[in-house]
Design brief:
With 243 residues, the protein is of the alpha/beta class. It has ten helices and seven strands. The termini are far apart.
Length: 243
């Protein structure tokens, strides 16, 4: 944990408090224990969890610097990344975690209770369905996702959840710039505008990583997201017509 504390400070200017270190230690222990029974994550060692889950989650603060969001929805959160580590950094954050796999949603509920986190909702559902729920549609300052889908698909999940004036954040690998280019039509159609691509470096991780930040500048048309499964099968492109 000493290295995690040092890396968080040197890379992102985060000064982890003792209670936050304790929470992350508990998170690590529970994740390893549950992963021994269920396929929660392919990363099964402490150092890997600290770098590829915790530091990777912390990297999101590069998108907002000293102005963190007040409300955040994390789509396809898996075992709670990046949402729960960000909640540990910002205890007042109103957080919603969306996960379609039951065991992963169960783990998220377990760790939220285990860490005594408040103002956290875990939803076991598909992103396409959540995007049409009255209490969630165009309700959040920030929607975020990591390793869920290629960007033309991902923006159809995320942009309908963000209010105008908010933004979405996609954590991507070295395909980030190409995905941003291929998603331009979908982004414009759904009310978004690309603000920036931020390169991210993690210790011991060779591949390039990017944060793609997209502002919500207009209301998303009511027909989006389309029914579950359709965005993946038929990503929005220039000649797409909404039936």
């Amino acid at each position: 944990m000493d290295k995690l504390r040092q890396d968080a400070k040197s890379l992102f200017g985060i000064q982890l408090q003792n209670w936050q270190i304790t929470a992350l230690e508990t998170y690590t222990k529970e994740l390893l224990e549950w992963s021994g029974k269920f396929n929660l994550t392919a990363i099964r060692d402490e150092n890997g969890i600290h770098t590829k889950h915790f530091l990777d989650s912390f990297s999101c603060i590069q998108a907002w610097k000293n102005k963190p969001p007040t409300s955040l929805i994390d789509i396809g959160t898996g075992a709670g990344f990046p949402g729960i580590p960000l909640k540990i950094l910002y205890p007042r954050l109103q957080l919603t975690l969306v996960e379609s796999v039951g065991k992963k949603a169960d783990f998220c509920r377990h760790i939220v209770e285990r860490l005594n986190l408040t103002e956290v909702e875990v939803i076991h559902a598909r992103a396409e369905d959540v995007g049409h729920l009255k209490n969630h549609r165009e309700s959040y300052e920030l929607a975020i996702a990591r390793a869920v889908a290629r960007l033309p698909v991902l923006v159809e999940y995320l942009l309908p959840l963000v209010k105008v004036g908010g933004y979405i954040l996609a954590q991507k690998g070295d395909t980030g710039p190409a995905e941003a280019h291929s998603a331009e039509f979908a982004i414009n159609l759904l009310g978004g505008h690309i603000r920036q691509l931020l390169p991210i470096t993690l210790p011991g991780v060779v591949e390039e990583r990017y944060l793609i930040v997209i502002d919500k500048i207009a209301t998303t048309p009511p027909g989006y997201p389309r029914k579950a499964g359709i965005p993946t099968k038929d990503p929005l492109k220039r000649k797409a017509i909404l039936n």
